[in-house]
Recover the amino acids of this structure.
């Protein structure tokens, strides 16, 4: 959360500036979610206009747990206080997609294990067919022996990385 000083229609600005474009690119490229509602968080006194310069960003797994709002009083500031309310409603977090280090995989073993049969794809429901093929492929990925750990190594990349620092 912070004062990003970027304008972009995505968070309610009537115009867009370079910083707003950079923030939009950061959000798109790193699967970051914007918590802001339509409430303005800044009052520009010389022009007597409202803006949204303060943004609350989070990972997709947290967006369902937080509610964004602003206070109605400026309290002698030009920024409205931001209120983030935690929502505890037992919503299950979406599972983070698995990523693999493909260059370390034993692809010949993977090809042997990942069998897609005719009966898998001749299902009445396309959803069932996709589920069966996906399951078979993921099982093969888990069983394929790599050069190092016995499986295709999985990686986890945090959503906060060096590219985020340019906005800090």
């Amino acid at each position: 959360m912070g004062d990003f000083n970027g304008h972009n229609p995505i968070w309610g600005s009537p115009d867009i500036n370079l910083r707003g474009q950079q923030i939009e690119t950061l959000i798109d490229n790193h699967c970051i979610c914007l918590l802001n509602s339509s409430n303005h968080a800044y009052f520009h006194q010389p022009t007597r206009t409202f803006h949204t310069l303060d943004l609350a960003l989070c990972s997709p797994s947290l967006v369902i747990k937080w509610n964004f709002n602003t206070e109605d009083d400026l309290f002698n500031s030009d920024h409205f206080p931001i209120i983030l309310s935690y929502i505890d409603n037992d919503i299950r977090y979406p599972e983070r997609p698995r990523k693999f280090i493909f260059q370390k995989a034993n692809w010949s073993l993977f090809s042997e294990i990942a069998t897609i049969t005719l009966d898998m794809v001749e299902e009445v429901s396309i959803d069932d067919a996709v589920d069966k093929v996906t399951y078979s492929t993921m099982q093969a990925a888990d069983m394929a022996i790599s050069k190092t750990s016995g499986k295709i190594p999985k990686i986890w990349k945090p959503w906060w990385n060096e590219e985020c620092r340019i906005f800090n």
Q: What stands out?
A: The two ends are 10 Å apart (CA to CA). The mean pLDDT is 76.
